[in-house]
Design goal:
The protein is an alpha/beta fold. It folds into 2 domains: 187 residues, 3-Layer(aba) Sandwich (Rossmann fold); 129 residues, Zinc Finger, Delta Prime, domain 3. Helices cover 54% and strands 8% of the residues. The chain has 14 helices and 5 strands. Strands 2-3-4-1-5 form a 5-stranded parallel sheet, with helices on both faces. The two termini are 35 Å apart. About 8% of the residues have low confidence. Bound molecules: zinc ion. The site of zinc ion has 9 residues, from helix 3.
Amino acid sequence: MDIRWEDIIGHKKNIENLQTLLKEQRLPHALLFCGPDGVGKSKVAVALAATLLCGSEQAPCGRCDSCRALLTDTHPDFYLVVPESVGKTAKSIRIERIREVQTEIARVPILSKRRVVLINDADRMNEAAQNCLLKTLEEPTGQVVFILVVNSRGALLETVQSRCMPMNFGTLLLDEIKDLLLQHGVMESQAAELAALSDGSVGRALLLQENGGMTLRDDVVSFLEKADSMEMEDVWIRGKDLGALSREKLTEWLMYLNMLLRDMLVLYSGGERTILYHQDVSARLTEILTEFPVERIFAVLELVRETQRRLGANVNIRLLMERFLLCMRNQK
Ligand SMILES: [Zn+2]
């Protein structure tokens, strides 16, 4: 995802206003971004989150731990809430998800000085979920900023609206759309699709799951299952396979590994199964917990982070993955 203000097309006035509020430290703890689909509301929200989370004076710097974590979808203080479907029901933001976030934000931030909760399509919260959120908006605990993004505020309770600073987003000018299309190298007819792609991290992951990303995820699960029986020969074979993936695919592979390891930590802590990213494989993950003591999970998470960082540089992917696998093997 883009985290820099400069990468956003249009919305100059809104961006100026936000930057002024940031500079004067007058940013309210809850904001409501309202405007048509696909004009870049989420992008502005992500840039704002990056600025709030970045530790540098030139925020967002794109280089500090916080910015890098945000760029790799692994920021522990950034929560992206998106509508999800349960079974065949329409996508919605359930009260359980709001509660889950409320529990997490009650804790001290891990990487940054504050936490940011970005709720995309916030109007997909039912009344119960909105009332639940309202409690936190009325009595914010600790350093947390909420950004609610909607295309129409009609479905939001008056009480929720009144707790947020509203900011309206208009459609982009024709020239701006042209710039945006050129920037992404696609034709004008694909603009709607492009807008959908500008979504954030977990949303993107969910989309990937729906579109066949599950194969990649399952590959990571079986990788973890076989990690302990990995021979040197497997290191070279696996390294070759992973090395043949595109940088983008490998980023996703590492992202799944990260999510699964975090799920394993949740399983260790005896946390609710409902807060797992990948509930459907929880039995398989529980099975391998014996081979992954908590210290080892943290060591692998660190290794993943390091690999993600190096992947951003111009490295030989196969060598990078061989090194990764060797480190994994040595941990046994
Ligand atoms: Zn930074």
